[in-house]
Amino acid sequence: MRKHPLLLGGTLVLLALSTRAADDWVRYNAQPAGSKVKVEGTSTLHDWLVESKLIGGYIEFDPAFNPEKPAPGKVNARVAVIIPVRQLKSDKTAMDNVMYDAMKEKDHRRIDYRLSQLTLKEPPNAPDAPLVFDTSGELIVAGVTNKSHMPVTMTRVDKDKFKFTGSTSVKMTSFGIQPPTKLGLFSTGDEVKLTFEWLTAKKEPAPK
Amino acid sequence: MQAGKHVYCEAPLANTIDDAKAIALAARTARKQVFQAGLQMRSDPQRRFLLDFIRAGAAGKAVKAHAQWHKKQSWRMTSPNPEREHELNWRLSKEISLGLLGEIAIHQIDALSWFLNAHPEAVTGFGSLMHWKDGRAVPDTVQAVFEYPSGAQLTSECTLANSFDADYEILYGTDAAIMMRGNKAWMFKEVDSPLLGWEVYARKDQFYRETGIALIANATKLTNLGEKATDEAAYTTSPLYYALEAFMINVNTISSAVEDFTANFAGSDQPAFEKYLSAIKLQPAATYREGFAATVLAIKACEAVARGAKVAPAWEGFESA
Question: Three-state SS across A76-100?
């Protein structure tokens, strides 16, 4: 396929810009251990719970943001969170498969989150106190994108490590997911609660 | 395994200890793949239910165990041509086959050692060719006695010359004997054994002059619900079906975990990867360790039969291997 030279040029410029920006921003990458996401729901039989320890992605802060002395207000940050659907598991394989089918896992293999706005509510009252942010973003489940607002807490766990925790409630139907039912046996509640702990660590600058 | 394949390896893993060790080591190294030893009883929900029951001390102190496998059949397969004859009838060849103890009794010996929670320290064996004198080199009737550290003994016997009473395993405890036949099990209580309570309501079967209390998974729950325990076993699918189902599920679980982890954390350190994999819940199945242990027992039992002597398997270093 022949590409339009102007379009190609535009892409290159954009690419160069984003690489440039990423160089300045301070990046924290998701860590392979220490994260946990939990989805809790209800059904006519009993409450249910699925969990995963695998949360990928990153958060990047504008170099102007100083986590030691943060100023309340809008914080420039970029966040991408990835949760592979099939790593969400309960104790029952058969029920997990029902969930994967309902979430159209074959076509939409991950839950994605992208941040649009991060606002620090108030300055921390102690040097190492957790920071509480208001967040707005987009949550993409089963290929459907919805706006999401939730408070998120950022806690320092190490010199270069931050843990982000938060929770939000979502409706399955708002993502086009039909709450699973089995005629006469059980039906699942539409609302589910999503809770997460996400461990990130500062990315070492690439050797020059 | 070095080619990156998941492996379901029939038991015994091999017919020499060196080969079995090489297979077990390859399985241990290949962390991204599933290796399942074909000891299907380890995946059988009925036996897993019995395991908890027995380990909880329901039969009292285990004093001995017995395994039997009787079937009148030649083991010889019809060959379309003389060239294929030897390959088809590999079980009759001493060089390749561990005979009845290795091909058949290995499953029962492994299951009973699992219930007894111990590795035998010694094995004595006897075997003879009693009926199928067709030029074969492996005995058609064998017996082996395994000695456990507690002093308990397991007798295992197999024959291809008589089919009476088919196959079963019995664990004898100071309070009760537990018999396992296919997907069913019964408990035969001693008169002085403590009352468990639920057995009053349990279904009972008559065996000549003995009364067997049927051990059915969820039986107490059924009684609580006011339902009668029926003749039907709770798990009617064969242990092999459960083992292969576990293998397929585990292959899917491990390969998807490896794929998702690598996609998100490519280049991360090996310990983090190992930690993630080890936290994954898998379907119950025999690992390379159980496969190796059972193979060692079968090889040693076979050696005991051949030499007509007591043979001691070497377990030193096994736990750390």
Answer: CEEEEEEEEHHHCECCCHHHHHHHH
Task: Measure the CA–CA gap between A200 and A163, rounded to whole angstroms.
Answer: 6
Task: Say if residue B12 is preceded by a cis peptide, omega within 30 of 0.
Answer: yes
Q: CA A67, CA A64: separation in Å to the nearest integer?
A: 10
Contacts of B256 in chain A (CB under 8 A): 84, 86-87
Q: Tell me the C-alpha distance between B207 and A173, whole Å.
A: 58
Nearest CB partner across the interface for A32, out of B249, B272, B281: B272
Give the alpha-carbon dihedral of A162, A163, A167, A168, to 10 degrees: 40
Hey, are the CB atoms on A54 and B256 less than 8 Å from each other?
Answer: no
Q: Distance (Å, rounded) from C-alpha A127 to C-alpha A143?
A: 41
Q: Tell whether the model's pLDDT for residue A163 goes beyond 70.
A: yes
Nearest to A54 among B260, B269, B283 (CB): B260
Confidence band, pLDDT 50/70/90 cuts, at residue B219: low
Distance CA B154, CA B172 (A): 10
CB B144 within 8 A of CB B105: yes
Pick from B150, B144, B196, B142: which is nearest to B172 by CA? Answer: B150
> B275 and A57 in contact by Cβ < 8 A?
no
> To the nearest 10°, the Cα dihedral for B193, B194, B199, B204?
10
Distance (Å, whole) CA B236 – CA B183: 7
CB pair distance less than 8 Å for B265 and A87: no
ipTM over 0.90: no
Contact call for residues A88 and A96 (beta carbons, < 8 A): yes
Closest CA to A103 of A142, A72, A68: A142
- Specify the pTM: 0.87
| DSSP per-residue letters across B297-308 | HHHHHHHHHHHT
DSSP, collapsed to helix, strand or coil, labels residue B109 as: helix
pLDDT band for A54, please (50, 70, 90 cuts).
very high
Residues 250-269 of B with CB under 8 A from A: 256-257, 260-261, 263-265, 268-269
Token pair 């036996």: residue: B47
Q: What is the dihedral of CA B187, B192, B198, B199, to 10 degrees?
A: 40
Measure CB to CB from residue B279 to each of A31, A53, A82 and give the nearest one.
A53
Chain B residue nearest residue A200, CA to CA: B265
Average pLDDT, chain A: 88
Tell if the CB–CB gap between B256 and A89 is shorter than 8 Å.
no
Nearest to A206 by CA among A27, A63, A13, A60: A27
CA distances from A172 to A43, A45, A141, A179 (A): 13, 18, 9, 6
pLDDT band (50, 70, 90) for residue B321: low
Q: DSSP character for B203?
A: -
CA distances from B298 to A204, B22, B147 (A): 54, 17, 14
